[in-house]
Amino acid sequence: AQKVTQAQTEISVVEKEDVTLDCVYETRDTTYYLFWYKQPPSGELVFLIRRNSFDEQNEISGRYSWNFQKSTSSFNFTITASQVVDSAVYFCALSGRAGNMLTFGGGTRLMVKP
Amino acid sequence: GAGVSQSPSNKVTEKGKDVELRCDPISGHTALYWYRQSLGQGLEFLIYFQGNSAPDKSGLPSDRFSAERTGGSVSTLTIQRTQQEDSAVYLCASSSVVSGGLGTQYFGPGTRLLVL
For chain B, how long is the longest CA-to-CA vector? Predict the structure, then answer.
């Protein structure tokens, strides 16, 4: 069985602070994919990143960066210099095979205050 | 191009009535998924269609739930004899085929269902 745990249910920061959202996963698959999605107040899930289990390189995209560590089964997401527009619920998800159903974590609600 | 679309955006129904929710995937995407998002259960997988293969129905919570996909494109999720616990946001996603398997799932805006 697969499981994704986002221990932080809610985080509140002040604008321009850096913030890290934690994600820990469990799977018996040797090949798997990890994802982060953003759900703003409008409700639509917006894709942010996908990583496969063979690629542990960290990735940076603008103010966003991701740290994938197989040794600790973690795929953490950092927002640098947070902005009010970053306020949303962020979901980490796991797929056992590319295209298979996603197992989601419980989500982390991020509130960025001006 | 156009993203995943869902209709209706909101649906209010009475307990015991049947409802149909529609999903139009991104053009060319061969895989289509239904998920449910509720306060108590978070985001849960319901059913998955890929091409002409038999759908994976392993996530459907009861036999009151069914889905079909016509012509490999549009999908309809049907809930019969709705119950109050069916109240949730129903999300549809689609993905394309890429090297090594299927691609990233892109989500529609969802249908918010309220059963009174």
Answer: 46
d(CA B9, CA B92): 12
Which of A77, A50, A86, A1 has its CA nearest to residue B106?
Answer: A50
pLDDT, tens digit (0-9, with 9 covering 90-100), for A11-50: 999 999 999 999 999 998 888 999 999 999 988 999 999 9
The verdict on a CB contact (< 8 Å) between A100 and B98 is: no
Q: Which token pair is A60?
A: 């940076």
Q: Which residues in chain B touch residue A44, judged by CB atoms under 8 angstroms apart? A: 107-110
Alpha carbon separation from B67 to A28, A36, B33, B55 (Å, rounded): 29, 27, 10, 9
Residue A114 Cα to chain centre, angstroms: 23
- Residue B62 CA neighbour count, 13 Å, CB half: 8
Q: B18-41: per-residue pLDDT in tens?
A: 999 999 999 989 899 999 999 877
Structure tokens at A1: 């069985």
Residues 6 or more apart in contact with residue A95 via CB below 8 angstroms: A32, A33, A34, A35, A101, A102, A103
Output the six-digit token pair for B85. 């616990």
Who among B44, B45, B89 is closest to A43 (CB)? B89
pLDDT score for B69: 94
Chain B CB contacts of A93 under 8 Å are: 43
Q: How far apart are CA A51 and CA A53, in angstroms?
A: 7
Of A72, A79, A91, A99, nearest to A16 (Cα)?
A: A79
